[in-house]
TrEMBL record:
Belongs to the DNA polymerase type-Y family. This is Translesion error-prone DNA polymerase V subunit UmuC. It comes from the Bacteria. One of its GO terms (molecular function) is DNA-directed DNA polymerase activity. It holds the Pfam family IMS. Keywords: DNA damage, DNA repair, Nucleotidyltransferase, SOS mutagenesis, SOS response, Transferase. InterPro entries: DNA/RNA_pol_sf, DNA_pol_Y-fam_lit_finger_sf, DNA_pol_Y-fam_little_finger, DNA_polymerase-Y, DUF4113, Rev_trsase/Diguanyl_cyclase, UmuC. GO terms for biological process: DNA repair; error-prone translesion synthesis; SOS response. One of its GO terms (cellular component) is cytosol. CDD domains: PolY_Pol_V_umuC. Its EC number is 2.7.7.7. Residues 2-187 form the UmuC domain. It comes from Rouxiella aceris. The keyword DNA damage applies.
Amino acid sequence: MFALADVNSFYASCESVFRPDLQGRPVVVLSNNDGCVIARNAEAKLLNIPMGAPYFKIRAQFERDKVAVFSSNYALYADMSTRVMTILEAMAPAVEIYSIDEAFLNLQGVSNCQDLEAFGHEVRAKVRQWTGLTVGVGIGPTKTLAKLANYAAKKWSQTGGVVDLSLMARQRKLMTLVDVAEVWGVGRRIAKKLNNLGINKALQLADAPTALIRKHFSVVLERTARELRGEPCLEMEEFAPTKQQIICSRSFGDRVSQYELMREAICSHAVRAAEKLRAEHQYCRYVSAFVKTSPFAENESYYGNTAGTKIQIPTQDSRDIVAAATTCLDAIWQDGHRFQKCGVMLGDFYSQGVAQLGLFDDYPPRPGSERLMAVLDTINHSGKGQVWFAGQGTQKSWEMKRQMLSPAYTTRFSDLLRVKL
DNA sequence: TCTGGGGTCCTAGGACCC
DNA sequence: TCTGGGGTCCTAGGACCC
């Protein structure tokens, strides 16, 4: 048996927890660069503020409706996430952290000691008491059914935020009510295709013949259908598998037309990517860079391009990765565009930095590379100062906008919440 | 003026091997 | 007139997730 616990309106709730004065007011959180709405609390949802709405288009309405608006504060959300996950891990035999705000719980054996619905309520109470955040809990014999139960727990308030789908009759009853588009693994495209086949409700997908599903879709949807029938196809993945790729990219605060600024940005993303790579204890052999103009800009022709390069020896050295990324940039740079975004991607990972050299290769590994990088990371994590590459620049005029950023309440001493008595 | 960032998995098709 | 069978690896593109 699985449970899915996820935090209601996670980002918006994190902001609200530290701002009791906002109680009852609509709260939204914007994407990076203050681009569009990515989280809304219940009050904001009541105002029909759509997910993904561009901020600049909806700003006037926000002012009229006294909506509290925040830039994304990932330092805060990541820390609050850790707190929630720690609580969940203490309550369940096994936990799979699925995203920043949700986790699957393996409930094997729990029903021997406790009613599962009561367990769900206990999880809610504890998370609320210890973090101020509210979770919804869905329970079912497969992950997909647990997800569906969670959806129901959030959609219908009379459930009290917990839905247990242990019983087949309850599963089927819920599935007659829920659109197939709400099922986990069914996105916009597949939903439309299913509708064309006359499959509109979740139950119809559950009952559809396997052959029909396989004829029109891939094995992925077949698994989804089986899971809806109560046949587990997906297991708990308690230990995060090693990453296959690392991407670091950002939109620019203002459009970039100057090569030097683009180079700084690419260089900075490459450095960040290399740090992530070392945190994964991996070495990479493929580096690529991309640039693009805004797809929304009218009267401007779109230009986007990407270039990749193979590195002879797997590396985790920032110097190699910066060099490779800037080489890629030079291959795709074009003057005369107003660029909106760029990024760096790493791939082809190895767990150690040794590879068989060709007979005539002369690319000896950099001596002392590991130790140098370790020193770099230690300094940059110490909180006492930063060292960086000259190529990253000092002004960073291209950096993203975060004009409504809240304090790092939980991760920076100077930002600690003050309570006046 | 202004529209996020970071991932995974699957499939089809081409290149290439014997 | 007739031109095999079986396989791997890689990449691009499409779908999905949060």
